[in-house]
Amino acid sequence: MTIPHSLQRAAANAVEANALLQDPAALRSACKPQLRRYEVSSLLPSGAISETRHIAPALPLFEDAFCAFSRGSLVETAGGPVAVEDLLPGDEILTRGGGSQPLVWIGHTSLLPAQPGSRGRSHRLTSFMADSLGLQKPASSLVAGPAARLLRAPPHVQRTADALLLTPVAEFQDGMSIFETAPPTPVDMYHLCLPRHAVISVGGLEFETYHPGPDALKLASYAIKTLFLNLFAHADSIQEFGPLACPRADHGSRPGPAIL
User: Fold this and answer.
1) Three-state secondary structure along 134-161?
2) Is the pLDDT of residue 50 over 70?
3) Distance, CA of 59 to CA of 49 (rounded, Å)
């Protein structure tokens, strides 16, 4: 039996009316993302170091700039391995290919991995046991954040393509030597930016430095663009981050060699 068109319209109107009767405070909270504190250390053109604190939305655009490496992760520098929290802008970071670049930006925030974001986004971390990706890869246990990408072919394409892609670390979870972890207490997370996007060694694994991606602000409002770019003293636009050093697995790029 078919439902008359008039009844269908009445039902639709009832649904709309019910939506208007919801708690206005609940409606407002559903539309507004939670805020997060972000800490930034930047290398100024004069050689001085600027330290600033920012309050910004806990959106992927912002969180991805801070949530790659956990406290204690060892970054290879010209002077040897240094814990990420002890790095200073101006330190020379070794890059893939044998060269180095000065560190121009360090971002830091704290996450509660067991607590999802305001829109249900997971902040769970990926833990690598020693030698899980080969001898000394990593050299000891390593915990990476949701924004970290490894220079390694995703597991599902390793048999069909010998390519180097910047792949989100969650893709490598196997539930045994590489697994998801969600501590119930806050975890300090960091990300690093060099003058040019590059691949660096952290704990014996090859990770990318921070780059928002060429289309990161394509659909963002003017206010969000301004708030985001204010985090970076060395960049006034997305173009100033330069090209990606390698293709990213999650951006549909063609596999190719890394050129640094």
Assistant:
1) ECCCCCCCEEECCCCEEECCCHHHCCCC
2) yes
3) 27
